[in-house]
């Protein structure tokens, strides 16, 4: 079975450029999460979708960040314009809807390592 | 205040010995779940073990067990018979709410475990 798929795996861009990260969740999962990992701040939730609807976007740093989930099998995280402080590893994760069980493991994608010069 | 606290930035253990990684949490919810993830140097996040707040017995998964002390709000991970491949970052995480109100995981800062041959 395919796990969570993220693309690209590595992205190097220059400050001011637009960056789009992509995620395909595990088929049948209806919750999708975007996390950012840095040495300074650790793993932080950016946004969380349930049934394609954004539930909690309080972790999105600022208006330069936007996320969409147009259908159950695809999500994007866009940064425009990008800045050097956005350099991090961005993880997408998916799970079954929380609440159907007290235990719903989140499956993580391999991450996208973003470097903004 | 931090929701998840991992007080050990780094730990060393001799191969074949057991090691305990500490995790304390802070929540006012009665229903919550606690998770441990492993992140090897390759970067992926690997789910290890789960403990629900209403689970009466400590969770076990192979060489991993969770020492759950609810009154002390601690959920320590015990790895028995350490192997060289256990060298990695270990993250404790919590999901609050059973009724689906909050699906995201809140992560600790992590503990870097190094297994010595």
How would you describe the overall organization of this protein?
By secondary structure, chain A is mainly beta. In chain A, 0% of the residues lie in helices and 53% in strands. Chain A has strands spanning 5-7, 10-13, 19-24, 31-38, 42-50, 53-56, 65-71, 74-79, 88-95, 107-108, 112-116. In chain A, strands 2, 4, 5, 6, 9, 10 and 11 form a seven-stranded mixed beta sheet that branches. A four-stranded antiparallel beta sheet of chain A has the order 1-3-8-7, with no helix packed on it. Chain A starts with a strand and ends with a strand. The model of chain A has no long low-confidence stretch (mean pLDDT 91). In chain B, 0% of the residues lie in helices and 50% in strands. Chain B has strands at residues 4-5, 10-14, 19-21, 24-25, 32-39, 46-52, 60-61, 64-69, 74-79, 88-96, 106-107, 111-116.
Give the tags.
heterodimer; A: 117 residues; mainly beta; seven-stranded mixed beta sheet; four-stranded antiparallel beta sheet; 53% strand; B: 117 residues; 12 strands; 0% helix
Topology at a glance:
The complex is a heterodimer of chains A (117) and B (117).
Chain A: E1 5-7, E2 10-13, E3 19-24, E4 31-38, E5 42-50, E6 53-56, E7 65-71, E8 74-79, E9 88-95, E10 107-108, E11 112-116
Parallel strand pairs in A: 2-11
Antiparallel strand pairs in A: 1-3, 3-8, 4-5, 4-9, 5-6, 7-8, 9-10, 9-11
Chain B: E1 4-5, E2 10-14, E3 19-21, E4 24-25, E5 32-39, E6 46-52, E7 60-61, E8 64-69, E9 74-79, E10 88-96, E11 106-107, E12 111-116
Parallel strand pairs in B: 2-12
Antiparallel strand pairs in B: 1-4, 3-9, 5-6, 5-10, 7-8, 8-9, 10-11, 10-12
